[in-house]
Amino acid sequence: MLDAYGGDPRRWSEDERAAALDFLQHSEQARVLQQQALRLDQLLAVLPEVSASATLEQRIFNSIQNPVSEPLPAWQIWLQEVWERYFGDSGWRVVAACGLPLLVGVAVGLSLPVHQNKQHHQQLAEDESTQRINRLATESIELVEFVL
Amino acid sequence: MEDPQVEALLAKQTDVSNAAELQADEMLMQRVQQGDSAAFQQLVRQHVRALHGFARRLLGNSAEAEDIVQETFIRVWHRAAQWQIGRARLSTWLHSIAYHLCIDLGRRNHIQTVSMSIDEVMDDAEVAGISESLEHVQREEMIQEVEAALQQLPERQRSAIVLCYYQNLSNSDAAEVLAVSIPALESLLARGRRTLREKLQAHLN
User: Fold this and answer.
1) Tens-place pLDDT, residues B45-90
2) Which of A42, A59, B4, B131 is the most buried (most CB within 10 A)?
3) How many folded domains does chain B comprise?
4) Residues of B in Cβ contact (< 8 Å) with A21
5) Tell me, what's the pLDDT at B127?
6) Residue-range definition of the domain harbouring residue B6
7) A69 lies within 8 A of chain B by CB
8) Where residue B95 sits, what CATH number does that domain have?
9) Confidence (pTM)
10) Domain ranges of chain A
11) Cβ pair A10, B10 in contact under 8 A
12) ipTM score assigned to the predicted complex
């Protein structure tokens, strides 16, 4: 507790404070450790209190343009919070990272050997409907090759 | 060392005043949710200083801290309906918004560690009314070293220390802002304080 919160009991966990104070009363070693922690606390306290510019409040008031929004559905609030918590303004990177493999996968799938075997299609049965099918298949392959 | 009973009493008084503050914040926020701009202005006045201090200690830059605070309150106004009584303390919610805005800014700027300019440190020391003397110079150097040590901490450790030590958030509220468990928060605090102790050993002896 001293390592985490320092020597001031006001910063200690509420659940453990009473027990810790009681322990301090009975342990010299604990009191020594508390003093060491308090020295660091005092050192951290030397930092002066920071102050905002005099105009900050007015800038905040001036920046409010729109009325209070209507309550969002619970699922939208959750989605918004999760998005902002884990992705922030970099969400487009996540979308690109997920979408790019998908596009590559589609392209690879279309380029598999079975789609490029023109001789195989030419060896199919010679009746008219089969020839039509062959023609259509050939044109599709050529179109995919053109696109890729 | 103070009497442990006195320390316990002081801690209890702090808890009581926190409960009163919690209730006042809830009433204020309910009015803001109804579009009460006067209530919003009061809310800003009550929390702007604490939030600015928080953002500045995280970022080490006053101008950026003010931008963060402004954006925080803009979001509070436009998303007032999202805050629910009993779900989180208002100060915790405000710190959480400001914290994530600071993190986003840090990612955009690729800031890993930030050092306050010497001028900013000196200005604050002068405002604090410290007299010109050798002691004054030594104190300013100490302030600068403490600030530098704090800014050199990893962002999560620095955030934990700023929230618990300078913003006086409870461990549960600070853990909620950082989206970690209380044991994880305590680990961050312990590691941060250990590093600070090592860097500032000369001033502790």
Assistant:
1) 999 999 999 999 999 889 999 999 999 999 999 999 888 877 778 9
2) B4
3) 1
4) 4-5, 7-8
5) 47
6) 1-113
7) yes
8) 1.10.1740.10
9) 0.68
10) 2-44, 90-148
11) yes
12) 0.75
